[in-house]
Amino acid sequence: MTRLPFSGPIHLGPLLLLLLWGCCITPSWGAGGAALADGAPFPLMDLPAPDSAADLDYLNLRRPESDSKKPVSVPNIGADIVIIEIFSLYCPFCQVAAPAVNDIFDLLARSPELGAHVKLIGIGVGNSAYEVDFFKKKYNIQFPLFPDPDFEIYQCLNNPRTPYFICVKNFPNGSSKIVHTHLGGIQNPQKFIDTVLDAAGPEKGDKP
Amino acid sequence: MKTKLMRMAKGAAIALLLTVEPYPAFPADLGGSIYHPGHLKPVDSRMTVVIGDPAPDFSLPAVSGRTVRLSEFRGKKNVVLSFVPAAWTPVCSDQWPGYNIAESLFEANDATLLGITVDNIPTLHAWTHQMGTLWFEVLSDFWPHGGVAGRYGVLRSNGTAERAIFIIDKNGILRFAHVEDINRRPDLGMIALELERAAHHPASQP
């Protein structure tokens, strides 16, 4: 117990705990913009057409085969839920997070129920096609990664810090809405998937 | 009453601690340690070296504690010099963490990487320490201030270095020189391409 001037005795323990909490909290948007809101429409944007036939096959795009060279939009991805990882080759936290994100992909791929309905993509902000490909090979990433070399997509998403996960629900009418966002790495891939599924609600009948 | 209040305060503090996000995100402000200089003049220097000429030799102290001389790599390794403007600034703070996972790229081209800034050793130690363990040497061009940056023609008028890449082959010949817009990172693909050229297509001897 400590006695401070002009006050009664005071226990420092709880105060120290509060101070420690204050130091641990990393402001989510310290160097970025405002967080995207759950329930908001997903911003309109084009992703470059994938070069890889495997990526095209995975995305199961809702458009004719002849349009395979055209940019991709998230609502056009053949999945009820799209989990988008915003990352950078140059982001050390994204490097550390890569194995856990791969675990998310593996869990989805192994599930006959989820695999066709939940897709995972990554957008490399400020990264060239080479850099995105380097990251993909370095961490043996099996899901499509898209380059955003001039930060155009990054700006549409309010300049988030990385890694940042945006979980989008696609509707039959072609619209999409954000159902969950997560800043930072993933501690528990299964729990993350469960959280996303809970946030997305029923697969059909939910209004956009 | 006081004991009950203290217990409640402790419980609240613990509950708050449990809500802490254990994974920080990037770019981390590191408690406000990253200085944001705003948008800078893209290039503020004039290169003084010529591709095809011998690269100016130099000797600089490294964060590792040793002194690194460029010519020590003659006959052994191709060398990539990565000048970045300053420690504790945004673009610089994420450029080298990217090279840190690209060691295989350099190994494939029998090359090493030397990171150089005009900061002093203690500053570089603190800054690079938060990047984790780097596989490459980080050199201080602090004194004479910017001496090496100046000889390569990449010292800006405010005393920082340009964001520049130089590739020197095993014969000590300058094979590639690039000054990037200081507000952007140079593309790793460009470095890979030019390094592969320097490593596998030797220039003729002078």
Give the spatial strand order of the biggest sheet of chain B: 5-4-3-6-7
Write down the overall geometry of chain A.
globular
Helix content of chain A: 25-40%
Radius of gyration of chain B: 21 Å
SSE order of chain A, as H and E? EEHHEHEHEHEEH
Query: How large, in whole angstroms, is the Cα Rg of chain A?
Result: 20 Å
User: Helical element count of chain B?
Assistant: 6
What is the succession of H and E elements of chain B? HEEEHHEHEHEEH
Note poorly predicted spans of chain B: 13-22
Largest sheet of chain B: 5 strands, mixed
* Average of per-residue pLDDT values of chain B: 88
Shape call of chain B: globular
What is the tally of beta strands of chain A?
7
pLDDT averaged residue by residue of chain A:
83
Oligomer: heterodimer
Q: Give the helix tally of chain A.
A: 6
What does this protein structure show overall?
- The complex is a heterodimer of chains A (208) and B (206).
- Chain A has 208 residues and is an alpha/beta fold.
- Helix content of chain A is 32%, strand content 18%.
- Chain A is built from six helices and seven strands, in the order E-E-H-H-E-H-E-H-E-H-E-E-H.
- Chain A has helices at 12-24, 53-59, 92-110, 129-138, 152-156, 189-200, and strands at 2-3, 9-10, 81-87, 118-125, 145-148, 164-170, 176-183.
- In chain A, the strands form two sheets. A five-stranded mixed sheet of chain A has the order 5-4-3-6-7. A two-stranded antiparallel sheet of chain A has the order 1-2.
- The longest helix of chain A has 19 residues, at 92-110.
- Chain A is globular.
- By secondary structure, chain B is an alpha/beta fold.
- Chain B has six helices and seven strands.
- In chain B, the strands form two sheets. A five-stranded mixed sheet of chain B has the order 5-4-3-6-7. A two-stranded antiparallel ribbon of chain B has the order 1-2.
- Chain B is globular and about 85 Å long.
- Mean pLDDT of chain B is 88; it is low at 13-22.
- Chain A binds chain B through residues 11, 13-14, 17-18, 20-21, 23-28, 30-31, 88-95, 97, 126, 128-131, 134, 138, 149, 161-164, 183-187, and chain B through 6, 9-10, 12-14, 16-17, 20-29, 31, 34, 36, 90, 94-95, 97-98, 100-102, 105, 131-132, 185, 187-189, 192.
